[in-house]
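W.,

You were right to be curious about this one. When I first looked at the sequence I had no strong expectations either way, so I just let the prediction run and decided to look at it fresh. Below is the sequence, 417 residues in total, followed by the output.
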Amino acid sequence: AQQQSTTPAAPSSSATPPPSSEAPAPSDGSVDAETAKQIQAAKAVRQDPKLIGADGQANQELVAKAMASLTCAPNAKDALEGNDDPKLPLVACGDHNTYKYLLEPEFLPGTEIADSNSGYDSQRGQWVVNLSFKSAGTKTWADFTSKNQGQQAAFVLDTQVVSAPNIQVAILDGNTQITGKFTQSEAKDLSDILKYGSLPLSFASSDATTVSATLGLASLQAGLIAGGIGLLVVFVYCLFYYRLLGVLTILSLALSGALVFAVLVLLGRWIGYTLDLAGIAGLIIAIGITADSFVIYFERLKDEIREGRTFRSAVPRGWVRARRTILASDAVSFLAAAILYVIAVGDVQGFAFTLGMSTVLDLVVVYLVTHPLVAMVSTSKNAFLSNPRHLGLGAVQQLGSQRKKATSVGRANVKEA
């Protein structure tokens, strides 16, 4: 890719231009003769050292000629793009091709910009762009802004003025804020240009695979079918093994799925997140993690009932024991997902993201839905709902009653003895 540079250029009312010498067109064979001729012609007019006189004043005749030769339109090709000489004045387009600017030579290279980001200024009620400079750039920027308050400084990317803010105050620490009637996307675009525009970019293809649209659709359908089958198997197992408790499990899983869907929709609107095949795989794995939390809880209830407690008294005690195990299990899953997301790239990140998100939502559902529903059933006066047989706890309660009875008989024999 072509090397790019983000360059603040001084306003046309200050600084003395360099010695009058025309920069030659590229002669390394990278352009053909016709293109080289166009570049040379554009430089002769738009980068004429005489555009700004020794007194710092613009030569109006030459400036008018240079601006007349420049076409500012969205699809217009600029021969000087990537071929301009930063040591010479420049006539350039800017502000979405609305204005033409006369720029003085570069006084600060874009490589001196340390960072740039966009944000919302609540005091002004508008989006702004914040940028900072490196140590050398901070000093140069401080000197320039101190001497040119009320003037403009242009930030230039490939002979295009991307921003030309007025200098309101001297900026001594390098922390600069650009204000304007930006939308959120415009502020982010400008921030990205200032942050990354000075980097030489090149791309190397490490791996490329071409698949047809039908193959991608088939993979998506296969993933959804696999997820549906897995969910159905979990439903059948829960109903067969836990009866009414299985119904509570199904309700909790349905709510968990609705929460995941809602979060994905919101992320899609806020940050443009898209669900890929790896993400679907993460969601399928999350079904098992969520079901595992229910199994842990219900098995703890069975342990309490085996010790002779009623279903009603077993729920709070079983929950205290189960939630520790659930927290530990989900913490391990979330930690693994977080590590994968940080150290991996591409599809693996999508898998880790959905897995971690589903793990967090599993805790929300278990704490705020599943346990309250089980507690409500345990205190219900409805004979059908509170019947242990209907909850898949009949055999366990019978065993608990026998154990409790045997314990009582043993204590009675001890007293008689």
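Here's what jumped out at me. The chain has eleven helices and eight strands. And, maybe more interesting for your project: Residues 311-343 form the longest helix (33 residues).

Coffee later to discuss?

I.
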